[in-house]
């Protein structure tokens, strides 16, 4: 039997191990420094390559370029569409894009910190300070206002409604102001493969992106901000699991009777849960609102086929009439306006508890898109990071999709900053683990809640209706509990870790 080590031998072995680890760390840092010099001198090797020029991808690039610690990284953006029209985004004050998002105060603070919010056209942004949610079957409701946020409710705003194009245009302007980003727009990803081992540096673990123009660029860290069908995620072999909701989201820009019951200074958002899906009316500047109506594919197709007058009548009915009435109106081939008017005359409802009436719809804004639940198994791989829809896709009933992406970007940017300031390789999986640990748990929790809410309110009858109505009224009556839910939705609540 081998004799036990003496205390002296144990100490000598410990010193050997520690010294050996120190030497390996020094070699790794020298290798990192050498590779950094290589990326600076080789036009086709980058520290960060981001695929996808949406809000998540552009926010990441602006965050990296605006931070002194990461501003010297060599960065490239690959985007399949031309970004020139987005840079010059401009619409008359009476027209709004139909793709809008509700930005939480937390997301706005992040955009301010990276210098992008100053480029957002503020006259096209609408803050709202109250939100009313109610059950379309039982009538049980809950009213959220900024008083429930307590001292943390800065500026008295629940969220800011903003066109996605307004945000992406602002981010592009900020990136142009900062400079230092090689933009390959109008070029699709043709292929992604691993690099090769050379004489000076081993790039065999580095992704090489080939774009449709024929150019190949190598990335120390490849970021997938390229949507639900992410080529970057596919290259990394990361599975994205979930299901289709068999629902479509119908969107449109609506003209209202007026600026709302509270006027310009107190805008209110509304959401009514129907068995086929929630219908939401979210305020825009002036007398305009954006519609998001989640419903079955068949009913979505029916809504899009209606003339403007009947479409407007159906939206008004969706916020006023019973599910039984709506079902009948959907079955009519045309002429919903007269039928809805007659039924509304025989339906009691509190006028000031629902939105003002819709009087028109902006031409060309009625559209729909399928709703899905998808969550990647992980957000990272070796020299790979996923953000936004490439990592997760959630039901829009709480308007958290874009905000989740901004949270991803803020966390990833901080993770990269830590690696740079501590002499670590930004692309290795060990360096990226902090980002994955922080964001995966938080997103998974929120996505699970949204999914359960959708399924809960899809039930049209039975004891579930009574129980969910009881729960809704209970939350409405408990100020601290309501404040907790609001803080989570606004991004100001406590973190999972």
Automatic annotation (TrEMBL):
InterPro entries for the chain: FAD-bd, FAD/NAD-bd_sf, Ubi_Hdrlase_CS, UbiH/COQ6, UbiH/COQ6_monooxygenase, UbQ_mOase_COQ6
Assigned GO CC terms: extrinsic component of mitochondrial inner membrane
Annotated localization: Mitochondrion inner membrane
Main subcellular location of this protein, as a coarse class: mitochondrion
Pfam families, A to Z: FAD_binding_3
Keyword Transmembrane helix: no
GO molecular function (one): 2-methoxy-6-polyprenolphenol 4-hydroxylase activity
Record-listed E.C. numbers: 1.14.15.45, 1.14.15.46
Membrane topology: Peripheral membrane protein
Pathway entry: Cofactor biosynthesis; ubiquinone biosynthesis
SUPFAM superfamilies cross-referenced by the UniProt entry: FAD/NAD(P)-binding domain
Names of required cofactors: FAD
Chain ranges of the FAD-binding domain: 46-441
Reactions that this protein is recorded to catalyse: a 4-hydroxy-3-(all-trans-polyprenyl)benzoate + 2 reduced [2Fe-2S]-[ferredoxin] + O2 + 2 H(+) = a 3,4-dihydroxy-5-(all-trans-polyprenyl)benzoate + 2 oxidized [2Fe-2S]-[ferredoxin] + H2O; a 2-methoxy-6-(all-trans-polyprenyl)phenol + 2 reduced [2Fe-2S]-[ferredoxin] + O2 + 2 H(+) = a 2-methoxy-6-(all-trans-polyprenyl)benzene-1,4-diol + 2 oxidized [2Fe-2S]-[ferredoxin] + H2O
Keyword Zinc-finger assigned: no
Key words, A-Z: FAD, Flavoprotein, Membrane, Mitochondrion, Mitochondrion inner membrane, Monooxygenase, Oxidoreductase, Ubiquinone, Ubiquinone biosynthesis
Quaternary structure annotation from Swiss-Prot or TrEMBL: Component of a multi-subunit COQ enzyme complex, composed of at least COQ3, COQ4, COQ5, COQ6, COQ7 and COQ9.
The protein's role, per its UniProt record: FAD-dependent monooxygenase required for two non-consecutive steps during ubiquinone biosynthesis. Required for the C5-ring hydroxylation during ubiquinone biosynthesis by catalyzing the hydroxylation of 4-hydroxy-3-(all-trans-polyprenyl)benzoic acid to 3,4-dihydroxy-5-(all-trans-polyprenyl)benzoic acid. Also acts downstream of coq4, for the C1-hydroxylation during ubiquinone biosynthesis by catalyzing the hydroxylation of 2-methoxy-6-(all-trans-polyprenyl)phenol to 2-methoxy-6-(all-trans-polyprenyl)benzene-1,4-diol.
Family statement: Belongs to the UbiH/COQ6 family.
Name this polypeptide is given: Ubiquinone biosynthesis monooxygenase COQ6, mitochondrial
Organism listed in the record: Venustampulla echinocandica
Source organism phylogeny: Eukaryota, Fungi, Dikarya, Ascomycota, Pezizomycotina
């Amino acid at each position: 039997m081998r004799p036990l080590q003496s205390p002296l031998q144990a100490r000598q072995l410990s010193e050997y191990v520690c010294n050996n680890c120190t030497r390996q760390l020094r070699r790794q840092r020298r290798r990192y420094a050498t590779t950094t010099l290589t990326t600076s001198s080789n036009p086709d090797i980058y520290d960060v390559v981001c695929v996808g020029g949406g809000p998540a991808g552009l926010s990441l690039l602006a965050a990296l370029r605006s931070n002194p610690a990461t501003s010297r990284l060599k960065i490239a953006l690959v985007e399949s569409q031309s970004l020139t029209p987005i840079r010059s985004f401009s619409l008359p004050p009476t027209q709004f894009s139909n793709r809008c998002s509700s930005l939480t105060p937390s997301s706005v603070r992040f955009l301010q910190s990276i210098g992008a919010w100053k480029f957002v056209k503020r006259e096209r942004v609408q803050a709202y300070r109250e939100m009313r949610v109610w059950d379309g079957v039982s009538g049980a409701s809950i009213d959220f206002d900024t008083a429930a946020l307590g001292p943390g409710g800065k500026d008295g705003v629940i969220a800011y409604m903003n066109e996605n194009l307004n945000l992406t245009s602002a981010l592009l302007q900020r990136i142009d102001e900062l400079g230092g980003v090689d933009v390959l727009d109008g070029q699709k990803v043709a292929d992604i493969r691993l690099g090769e081992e050379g004489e000076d540096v081993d790039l065999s673990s580095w992704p090489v992106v080939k774009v449709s123009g024929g150019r190949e660029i190598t990335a120390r860290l490849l970021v997938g901000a390229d949507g639900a069908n992410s080529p970057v995620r596919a290259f990394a072999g990361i599975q994205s699991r979930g299901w289709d909701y068999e629902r479509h989201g119908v969107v449109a820009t609506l003209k209202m009777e007026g600026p709302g019951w509270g006027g310009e200074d107190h805008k209110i958002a509304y959401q009514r849960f129907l068995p086929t899906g929630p219908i939401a009316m979210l305020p825009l500047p002036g007398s305009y609102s954006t519609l998001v109506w989640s419903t079955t594919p068949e009913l979505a197709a029916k809504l899009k086929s209606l003339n403007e007058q009947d479409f407007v009548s159906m939206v008004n009915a969706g916020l006023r009439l019973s599910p039984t009435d709506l079902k009948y109106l959907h079955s009519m081939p045309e002429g919903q306006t007269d039928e809805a008017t007659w039924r509304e005359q025989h339906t009691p409802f509190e006028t000031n508890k629902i939105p003002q009436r819709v009087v028109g719809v902006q031409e060309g804004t009625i559209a729909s898109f399928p709703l899905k639940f998808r969550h990647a198994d992980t957000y990272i791989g070796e020299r790979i990071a996923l953000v936004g829809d490439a990592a997760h896709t959630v039901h829009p009933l709480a308007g958290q999709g874009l905000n989740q992406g901004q949270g991803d970007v803020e966390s990833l940017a901080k993770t990269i900053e830590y690696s740079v300031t501590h002499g670590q390789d930004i692309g290795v999986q060990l360096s990226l683990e902090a980002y994955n640990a922080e964001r995966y748990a938080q997103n998974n929790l929120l996505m699970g809640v949204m999914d359960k809410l959708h399924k809960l309110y899809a039930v049209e009858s039975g004891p579930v209706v009574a129980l969910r109505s009881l729960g809704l009224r209970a939350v409405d009556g408990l100020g601290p509990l309501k404040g907790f839910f609001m803080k989570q939705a606004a991004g100001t609540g406590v973190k999972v870790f």
